[in-house]
Design goal:
Layout: E1 3-4, H1 24-46, H2 54-68, E2 71-72, E3 85-88, E4 91-93, E5 107-116, E6 119-128, H3 134-152, H4 160-173, E7 177-178, E8 182-186, E9 193-197, E10 214-217, E11 220-222, E12 228-230, E13 237-239, E14 245-247, E15 250-255, E16 258-261
Antiparallel strand pairs: 1-8, 2-5, 3-5, 4-13, 5-6, 7-11, 8-9, 8-10, 10-15, 11-14, 12-13, 15-16
Helix pairs in contact: 1-2, 3-4
Length: 265
């Protein structure tokens, strides 16, 4: 689940003093939580097909979580009413599952977060449903590529801005616009920890990246303009121009050997 940029963050210059460094034991617990979150996401994504409703996908997520011995990190978070976020086409993030039926040509972004032994696992993926539009295909492929570009920069000795900049470079190269109001985040015993991780900005800036940090990197890229609006339900975020948006997320540990994806596909 994305973090609103600026929420509870205070002065971003102080983030380096509040980022939680995890012990190897805590990283192992997060590796387990991330693996379970990734398994829920895989099963739900595999079930996306024409005719299925987003509520049915959410119910499947609950069933899978129960089978894995985890609980949703999203349900009741600040009042959120579902197990997962399922966002279709022009919905950027935080789509509330309901009676909407998936159809051919849709892109469906599924965001899954779980609690396991006191630690969060958080990841997201956009699924294409028999998409033929080459621009929409490129949107999805290039948003995932932007995620992986950001992940590659999550290594000790770099700066947080290196991650943000790598995502933005890929977005610009692909002629996609970056959603700025929502960002990635640190995670651990809380779903949203410091630092906030924008998907744009200059490299070489921000907190020093250190071994033991765990970051949720999650680009949200639009085929049209970057402007967004939130619907009356207070959660669903859509593109202002009605064009599609894609969303990918991995939970990543910074290790001595570089980035380790804790939510492997």
């Amino acid at each position: 689940m994305c973090r609103y940029f600026g929420s509870r963050g205070g002065d971003r210059r102080k983030q380096m003093n509040t980022i939680v460094i995890k012990t190897p034991e805590e990283i192992e617990m997060m590796r387990q939580a991330g693996g379970k979150a990734a398994e829920v996401l895989r099963i739900v994504c595999d079930a996306v097909k024409p005719g299925v409703t987003t509520k049915e996908l959410d119910d499947l997520a609950l069933q899978t979580m129960e089978g894995l011995g985890v609980t949703s990190a999203f349900l009741n978070y600040m009042g959120y009413p579902a197990q997962t976020c399922i966002s279709v086409n022009d919905t950027v993030i935080h789509g509330i599952p309901g009676n909407r039926k998936i159809k051919d040509g849709d892109i469906v972004s599924i965001d899954v977060g779980v609690w396991h032994n006191g630690f969060v696992g958080d990841n997201a993926k956009t699924v294409m449903v028999n998409v033929t539009d080459p621009e929409v295909k490129a949107l999805v492929h290039n948003t995932e590529a932007a995620l992986m570009a950001g992940v590659a920069e999550a290594k000790p000795g770099g700066r947080l801005g290196d991650i943000s900049h790598a995502v933005e470079v890929m977005a610009n190269k692909s002629k996609l616009s970056v959603v700025r109001e929502f960002v990635g985040h640190g995670c651990g015993r809380k779903m949203h920890e410091e630092p906030q991780i924008p998907n744009y900005g200059p490299s070489g800036r921000g907190p020093l990246l250190r071994e033991g940090m765990v970051l949720c990197i999650e680009p949200m890229l639009n085929l049209g303009a970057r402007r967004i609006r939130t619907l009356d339900d207070g959660w669903t975020v859509v593109t202002a121009d009605g064009k599609p948006s894609a969303h990918f997320e991995h939970m990543v540990a910074i290790t001595a050997d570089g980035p380790e994806i804790l939510t492997p596909r």
